[in-house]
Each structure stands twice: as structure tokens, then as C-alpha cells.
Amino acid sequence: MILCSVGPGRGALEIPGVCRELSRSGHSVEVVLEPGARNFVGPAAFYGYATVVDKPSGPVEAVLFAPATSGVLARLARGLGDGAAAGVYAAGARPVVVAPELEGGTSGHPAVRENLDRLSGDGCRVVLRDNGSMPGAAELVAATLGSLGGPLAGLRVLVSAGGTREPVDSVRFLGNRSSGKMGVAIAREAVRMGAEVSVVAANVEVVEPGVRWTPVETVDQLRESVMALAAESDALIMAAAVSDFKPASVTRSKIRRSEGLDLELVATEDVLKSVRRANPELFVVGFAATHGDPVPDAREKLGSKGVDLVVGNDISQEGIGFGAEENEVYIVKPEGESFVPRASKQEIARAILGDLAREMTKERRT
Ligand code: CTP
């Protein structure tokens, strides 16, 4: 069971979302609402994801203190075990994640700095923004699951999902059938495996909680966001269906039927190739959607795009791929390929990330 100690502060509003993600990744969650916390969030907000308790009901796998006030930091650092969660900490429970929320100026105070250093020295993972505010739900989920040591713990994973849209005029666009389900399943699974996850989402309707979410519409916007985030990531999984063409010019108003329409298209930039060129250390996974046997196409893309893995699927088959709930893929690596038979996109995501984790470990060893 994961124990969350919720302190009084604006950050408390984020904690029900954090608990939902921890519970969705298979953990049971108990919440202690510290004095004053109920002014920000009530027990009903945790309904369905976590049990609000006075003290933990059994053994604790990990403890999250969020938001942690400077008073909580002091009590934890000085071994003052008053309060159920602080008592668990003082009794030696680990791993522990502490997410302070400090009023302006407090974070620089020497006593607060000393307490933070003591907590880090005592094996706590302290997650804090430079301005003293508490990080968002995505980071807290990743820090907590990562502290439990999943196969992607400590890695920053960037996923592109969905399908781009290129405007033709003020109402029309060139798009594709991608729903974003595969990319979102990968992002969700990566969080469960302990990674800190960012998603660049091209026209994906439902925002996935627990990740850093950047919505985009066009290829150019997707390229800009992926390029910026890739520089601070360890792995990129390029699941988005990116348009290969865009209109040579965009009409700002609506083109009328009476005007007729000759659409001139120009090729877009290959985002995957550009990202690979700019980030030689990044572990990159590409996708190849093919009619028929996907392996030769995937293998060709592995070389031409210079990526580490290519996930290939046969889009001519019914019930898998674009928009479907299931998929069936080949994961193609430089030294061979593996087949993942038809399964839910969540299970396919697990297989892809399992391969990614294995390959990245191999790379780090060599
Ligand atoms: N991709 C990209 N930038 C593009 C087009 C595609 O980064 N402008 C990425 C996709 O996200 C995917 C991979 O490249 O991971 C393969 O996409 P796909 O459309 O199958 O291949 P293309 O590179 O477009 O080549 P072709 O259409 O000729 O098969």
C-alpha cells in the first residue's frame, strides 16, 4: 500500500489525481489528511481511488508527503514522529517522496535548506520546483512509482500521439485516422513502469492524467514541441501519425464551392529524422504502418531514419491499428524482430516498453 500524507496547501488539490494514477497502476492507496488539509480537499475527492484513514491499516510500500509545508519538513528532518505518516517515516519506512510547497522566500531560508538536505541525506526523494512550489501530478506520480523501482524508473520518456491536421482553409484540414489510443496506452504504461512521461498530443480528445501534456495540431507545431522536449528526454516514442504533406498555402477564409479548388501539396519535414540528428544519445522508437507484411518496411525505416526500434503493423487487417482497441505488431531491432500477437493496445504498449527497457539497459552497459 502507498501512503499519501496530504498537507494544507494549494497543491492538495492535485493529490486526488495522483491517487487515481497510483491506484490505476495497481497499488492500493491510503490517505492521511493532515491538520488544515481539509480546507483544501475533502475525503469525497478520493472516493474510488484511495481510502482516507487516521493511520495506515497495514505495511507501507512507499510514502508520499505532498504538499509538505516547512513545518512538516522540519518535523520529518528532526525525527519528530507526531502524526500518523510522520510516525511511519520516523519508524524507518522507505522509499519516501517529499514534495514541499513553500511560501515565497521560505525555500531559501537556511533552516529549510538544511531540513531539505537532511531529508535527501536520509534517503528521501525531494521533488521541488525552483520557485518553491510543488511539482504537478505527473511528476509526483512518476517520482512515487519510480521510487518503487519500475523498469523505467529515473527515465524521462517522451511520447508523440494522435494524428496531425494541416489546415486547408478556415474550416477544412488534411488529417488521418489516428485516434491517439496507441500513443496514450504507451504513455500510461510508461508511467506505471516508473518513467516521468511527457506527451505531445496531436488532436487527441481526452487528456491523459499523470503525464505532462502538450496539445498540438499541425506537423510544424508537433516538430517544435518534440524537438524542445526531446532535448531533455532519455527516450522518444514516435507513435503519432504525422502528415507527409501539407497545403502549399493556407486560405484564411472559407473557400467557396463556386471558386473551385486545386490543392497543391508540399512534403513536410521528417520529424523523426530531424530529432535523431539533433539528439544522437536519445533512444528513439519509430512506427511503420504498412499494408501487408510490415517487417521489410520497418527494417528499411530502422536504417533510413537511424532509430533504435521500429514498431510495424499491418493496417490492412480488420480490427487492429488506427482507431481500434487492439493491435498486433512486430518490434524490429537491428539484430532481429519479435512478434506481438493481437492484444489490447495496453498489452502491446507493455511489450514495446519492455523491449525498450531491455535495449536501453544493454546500451548503458556497452
Ligand atoms: N514521421 C515523422 N515525420 C513525418 C512523417 C512520419 O516523424 N513527416 C514518423 C512517424 O511518427 C512514424 C514514422 O515516422 O514514427 C514512420 O511514419 P510513416 O508515415 O509510416 O512513414 P514515412 O516516414 O512517412 O514514410 P512513407 O510514408 O514513405 O512510408
Task: Please give a quick description of this structure.
The chain is an alpha/beta fold and 366 residues long. Helices cover 31% and strands 25% of the residues.
Helix content: 25-40%
Distance between the termini: 37 Å
Shape: elongated
Spans of at least 5 consecutive residues whose pLDDT stays below 50 are: none
Features:
single chain; 366 residues; Rossmann fold; 2 domains; binds cytidine-5'-triphosphate
Protein described:
The chain has helices at 15-24, 70-77, 84-90, 110-121, 137-147, 181-192, 219-230, 271-278, 294-304, 345-365; strands at residues 2-6, 29-33, 51-52, 62-68, 96-100, 124-126, 156-162, 166-167, 173-174, 196-202, 212-216, 235-238, 245-247, 265-267, 283-290, 309-314, 326-333, 336-344. It is of the alpha/beta class and 366 residues long. The chain starts with a strand and ends with a helix. α1 (15-24) packs across α5 (137-147), α2 (70-77) crosses α4 (110-121) and α6 (181-192) packs across α10 (345-365). The mean pLDDT is 93. It has an eight-stranded mixed sheet, with helices on both faces. A six-stranded parallel sheet has the order 3-2-1-4-5-6, with helices on both faces. Bound molecules: cytidine-5'-triphosphate. Residues 219, 238, 240, 242, 244, 268, 270-272, 286-289, 301 line the site of cytidine-5'-triphosphate.
List strands and helices in order, with pairings.
Blueprint: E1 2-6, H1 15-24, E2 29-33, E3 51-52, E4 62-68, H2 70-77, H3 84-90, E5 96-100, H4 110-121, E6 124-126, H5 137-147, E7 156-162, E8 166-167, E9 173-174, H6 181-192, E10 196-202, E11 212-216, H7 219-230, E12 235-238, E13 245-247, E14 265-267, H8 271-278, E15 283-290, H9 294-304, E16 309-314, E17 326-333, E18 336-344, H10 345-365
Parallel strand pairs: 1-2, 1-4, 2-3, 4-5, 5-6, 7-10, 7-12, 10-11, 12-15, 15-16
Antiparallel strand pairs: 8-9, 13-14, 16-17, 17-18
Helix pairs in contact: 1-5, 2-4, 6-10, 7-8
Bound molecules: cytidine-5'-triphosphate.
